[in-house]
Specification:
alpha/beta; single chain; 5 strands; about 150 residues
Length: about 150
């Protein structure tokens, strides 16, 4: 990766607490904040599908943004169909996404073997999610193939 370029992360996420399996709104906001703050602390520009405003085909724009991203982060809460569709696209592009979910019940059988940053327990919570994500971002970027 070019040292002068700011790395980017593309976030796959439900866009509301309801779309995240009717998660508590405060928990949904805490997870979104943890992702945003972790990217900021890691020096990574965070991008999301709902921050793309130009005209065109949404899925093509998401695919393009993921192809350009240095890493992908996926909030799997609520087994949101759009998140898992986009997760499949990201993996087909060669990304090894950072997964986030409250617990293993939010991961289908073919993702249950993947490392996932949980936040719905007594030890692994939204309060310590940011710190864990900062480490995951740094380690993922260190191992990632250059994208551009």
């Amino acid at each position: 990766m070019d040292e002068s370029r700011v790395p980017t992360a593309f976030l796959l996420t439900p866009f509301s607490a309801r779309a995240a399996g009717d998660e508590k709104p405060a928990t949904y906001r805490a997870v979104q904040r943890a992702v945003r703050d972790a990217c900021l602390e890691a020096g990574v520009e965070l991008r999301r599908a709902d921050s793309i405003f130009r005209s065109g085909v949404i899925v093509d724009q998401i695919r393009e943004a993921m192809a350009d991203a240095d890493l992908v982060i996926a909030v799997c809460t609520g087994t949101n169909a759009n998140v898992f569709y986009e997760l499949g696209m990201a993996e087909a592009m060669g990304h090894q996404p950072i997964l986030i979910a409250p617990d293993a019940r939010h991961l289908p059988f073919d993702k249950a073997h993947c490392r996932c940053h949980m936040y719905g327990g007594k030890r692994l919570t939204t309060r310590n999610l940011r710190a864990r994500l900062v480490k995951a971002i740094a380690e993922t970027l260190a191992e990632a193939e250059p994208r551009r």
